[in-house]
Amino acid sequence: MNVQFKKGVLELCVLVLTSEGDRYGYELAVKISSKFEVAVGSVYPLLNRLTLEGYFSTYLKESNEGPPRKYYQLTEAGWQHMRGLIHEWSSFSTAVNEIIEEGIRP
Amino acid sequence: MMMTKHNYMSELERLLAKVPDKQRREWLFDYYSHFQQAEENGQSEHEAALELGDPRQIASELLLGYKVQRAEAEKSFGNTSKAVLATVSLGFFNIVFVLGPYVAAVGVLIALWATTLALGLAGVTTVLESTWSGMFTLTQAASIGLVCIGLGILLGVGVNALTKGFFAATIKYLKFNTKIIRGKKQ
Predict the structure, then answer these.
(1) Which of the residues A39, B66, B135, B155 has an alpha carbon 20 to 30 A from that of B117?
(2) What is the mean pLDDT of the segment spanning B46-65?
């Protein structure tokens, strides 16, 4: 998949992952980069931006091993933003799928 | 070359040197704890560094978000220009299409501000001049002066609104574009 396109949907994926429960940065970075070919380090600037825009709030929590972890929690604005993106994504992918199906019909 | 945690972190720290301490420490913390957790999962420092990606790219991405945010919070010439430059340097835009029009528009704004200032100055000096030499009587000078100052104030109010609007629109445009075409370089 094309790089520009991937980075655009990264935002949506990060939001959806945190909607199931609060996640810490490392978890999100590894999860995202296992599915997409993106530098792990690029996930943190994205998390930062989404936090600055008010879609995430963060808190530190002690862990059994190593230093405390920074958790990301979806805010009310984050939920709304996510729903909007999901809606955009599904109408977009439906349109693409329709064209593909029409195209490969014998 | 083997990239160690120490190398990676000091490179990142150097690249972010211009950012206020608090913000920089917060960012570095993310990468520091990333290394820690990678280590717990049995990854070598070198592997973790490779996976994280080029520190220069990371620093640019961090700085872009930060500068756009700052410019949004305080719409000044300095902040807006920094955000424009960060966007251009990340390769989101062609210099000709963003920097060119931006510089041109700033030029027009500066010219408008100069005109405003000149009008105000002309008003004041007309009055002052009439008290020394006799080109106008004081009454004539006062009315000419008042007209000039009045025009200056009106223009100033207009130009001020225009300047603020221009900075706001620029930031909106930058945000819009950086969201759509994030990370052109690999």
Answers:
(1) B135
(2) 87
Structural domains in chain A, sorted by start: 3-104 (1.10.10.10)
**Which ipTM score applies to this complex?**
0.80
Task: Compute the nearest-CA separation of A34 from chain B (Å).
Answer: 11
The residue type of B153 is I
The answer to whether B105 and B58 are in contact (CB under 8 A) is no
pLDDT, tens only, B106-155: 899 999 999 999 998 888 888 888 877 767 787 888 888 888 889 999 99
Burial A42-77 (b: 16+ CB within 10 A, else e): bbbbbbbbbbbbebbeeeeeeeeeeeebbbbebbee
pLDDT tens track for A43-62: 898 898 889 889 999 998 88
Residue spans per domain, chain B: 1-53, 75-186
Q: Which residues touch A76 (CB under 8 Å, ≥6 apart)?
A: none
Helices (H), chain A: 3-19, 25-35, 43-52, 76-104
Locate all alpha helices (DSSP H) within B41-76, ordered by sequence: 45-52, 55-73
- Check CB contact of A60 with chain B, cutoff 8 Å: no
Q: Best interface-test mutation with B: which of A7, A31, A33, A48 has the largest number of B CBs within 10 A?
A: A48
Name residue B125's amino acid. Answer: T
Is A52's CB within 8 Å of B69's CB?
yes
> What is the percent of chain B where pLDDT is above 90?
20
